[in-house]
Structure formats: C-alpha cells, structure tokens
Amino acid sequence: MGFVSNIVRKIVFWNYPRTSWQWDVLCVLILVFIFLTPKSWFANPPYTTPTRIVLPLELVGPQADKPEIERRAKEFARRPNGQVIAIERLDDGGKLIGYQVDIR
C-alpha cells in the first residue's frame, strides 16, 4: 500500500524530476484533457437564472391578457424562446400601473 500512496503523493504534489518519463506522461495527460474535453462541460447553460422585467402599462395596454403580456416580455427581454415563470400586477393604490414578469 505504501508504493501506491507514494505514487499518488508524487503525482498530486508533482514531485517527479523534469527530465523523467513520468513528467512527460503527466504533461501529455494535461494536454489531452485541455484539448479533448468538450466545451459543454464548462459552458453555463444560457438563461438559467430568471430575469425580472417591469413592463409599464403603456407598453402592454390596460386590457392585456396573459399571452400578450408573455409575448411583450419575451420581446422586451430579447428572449424569443424564453419561459415566463411568473406575472404579477403592479398596483399603486388600487390602480394598475404595470406588470412584473419573471422570465428564464
């Protein structure tokens, strides 16, 4: 067991001399990882966090229905394939002033 732990310790702490074959193997493995790893492993999926948009009443209209509000929110956020999570009315003393839309 001491032999295996010794090898692992040398790999983790990079204790091989620079001119050894072990050094070359480790460098090749690092390069293989860098160049052959798919970009999708490190890319963040777009639009994972919701964005909150406030749509004024002038933009949507006083009699807008839910599909119209969703369409305007996607257009305003420039996310045509976005998913509307929540729509809330913004009131000021009982008077509708706009909509707050969460879109992902």
How is the secondary structure organized here?
Layout: H1 2-13, H2 21-36, E1 51-56, H3 57-60, H4 66-77, E2 84-92, E3 95-103
Antiparallel strand pairs: 1-3, 2-3
Describe the structure.
With 104 residues, the chain is of the alpha+beta class. It has two domains: 2-41, no CATH class; 51-103. The protein is built from four helices and three strands. The chain has helices at 2-13, 21-36, 57-60, 66-77, and strands at 51-56, 84-92, 95-103. It has a three-stranded antiparallel beta sheet. Strand 2 (84-92) and strand 3 (95-103) form a beta hairpin. The protein is rod-shaped, with a radius of gyration of 28 Å. 8% of the residues are buried.
- Overall domain count: 2
Mean pLDDT reading:
85
Low-pLDDT parts are none
Structural class: alpha+beta
| N-C termini distance | 52 Å
Strand proportion: 15-25%
- The helix/strand series, from N terminus to C terminus, equals HHEHHEE
Number of helices: 4
Major pleated sheet: 3 strands, antiparallel
Using the CA coordinates, give the radius of gyration.
28 Å
Helix content: 40-55%
**Count of beta strands:** 3
Q: Give the strand order, joined by hyphens, for the main sheet.
A: 1-3-2
Shape call: rod-shaped
How would you briefly describe this protein structure?
With 104 residues, the protein is α+β, with helices and mostly antiparallel strands. It has helices at residues 2-13, 21-36, 57-60, 66-77; strands at 51-56, 84-92, 95-103. Strands 1-3-2 form a 3-stranded antiparallel beta sheet.
